[in-house]
Every structure is written in structure tokens, then in C-alpha cells.
Design goal:
Blueprint lengths: L2 H20 L13 H6 L7 H19 L4 H19 L14 H4 L1 H24 L5 H26 L7
Helix pairs in contact: 1-3, 3-4, 4-6, 6-7
């Protein structure tokens, strides 16, 4: 499949699943799983920062439209898009990312994906919930929501990849 078509389809699926399914289910303990950071992580390694930030903004804005959250998702998505190159450089394979298309479990392996997406998700969720509450009185609840939501999001991201991604050759 053409890579551009593949990423457009992913964009639509991630936005619809987040906006129409995950955003509408009342989870206990303030848990709010958000899988669209996985879409941002899966954008090609060679894509430029500005391109990733624009796509992340459009993704977040689309979810804001469904969730009526007035830019919370857009700003959180742009933040992680901005931090993406730095995070990738921290966890860069010995030979760099050349030859790898995207950061999925099958191309990069579990030992790369879990810490990278875990940090990615924690930063995204913490920023999102801090903006949502804007109060230091609720800081413990914000941390609780961040940790629980990030764990559930990481679990869902792994399940999504195991069920829907093709096993490719690790380089």
C-alpha cells in the first residue's frame, strides 16, 4: 500500500476510534485512554519536525471536535510531536534509524517501543491533564489519572499493533 494512503487511513481510523469510541466510554478511576499518540509515533522517521507538528495539530484538532475539548488534544499532540525527535535521539539504535520506516513493535522491537511509547504517553497525558484541571489542589488526582491512563494507553497500543499490524522483518 502507498505510504501516504496508509497514513491517511491511520489518521482517520485513530481519530474516529478516539472520538467515537474511547472518548465516549466512561472508564472508572478517571482513566482516559488516548490512542492517537500512537499515530504520531508511527509517522515515518524521516518526516520533518514541521510536518509532524502540523499533522499532530490536525489530529488533535479533529479529536477536539469530537470531544468538545477546545484545543486540549491539539496542544498535547503538538507537544509530543515537538518532543518526538529528542525522544528518538535518546533511544536511537546503535546504527541510527536508517532503514526503518516507522517506530512500531515489529520494526523496532519491544525493548525500544515500550520505553519510548511509555515516555511519549506519560508526557502527553500529564500535559493534557494539567491543562484540563489547571489547579494544584487536584495535583494528586492529575498524577493518578496520568499514570492509570498511560498504562491503559500503552496496553491498548500493544494490542492494536499485535492485532492489526503485519509482522515485518526487523532490520
Amino acid at each position: 500500500m502507498n505510504p501516504v494512503v496508509k497514513h491517511i487511513l491511520r489518521f482517520v481510523v485513530f481519530v474516529l476510534v478516539q472520538g467515537l469510541i474511547l472518548g465516549q466510554i466512561p472508564f472508572p478511576l478517571g482513566i482516559h485512554p488516548m490512542i492517537y499518540p500512537l499515530f504520531i509515533l508511527l509517522l515515518p522517521f524521516e518526516m520533518g519536525l514541521i510536518g509532524v507538528m502540523v499533522i499532530a495539530f490536525l489530529c488533535g484538532l479533529s479529536i477536539d471536535f469530537f470531544m468538545n475539548t477546545f484545543g486540549l488534544h491539539a496542544s498535547s499532540a503538538v507537544l509530543i510531536a515537538y518532543l518526538r525527535p529528542e525522544l528518538f535521539s535518546l533511544f536511537s539504535p546503535r546504527d541510527g534509524y536508517e532503514g526503518f520506516e516507522e517506530g512500531n513493535i515489529y520494526q523496532m522491537g519491544w525493548r525500544w517501543f515500550i520505553p519510548v511509547f511509555g515516555i511519549f504517553t506519560l508526557v502527553h497525558h500529564l500535559y493534557f491533564f494539567i491543562l484540563e484541571y489547571l489547579s494544584f489542589k487536584e495535583i494528586l488526582f492529575v498524577f493518578q489519572k496520568t499514570i492509570l491512563s498511560a498504562v491503559i494507553t500503552l496496553f491498548l497500543a500493544i494490542i492494536i499493533q499485535v492485532l492489526f499490524f503485519k509482522k515485518g522483518k526487523k532490520k
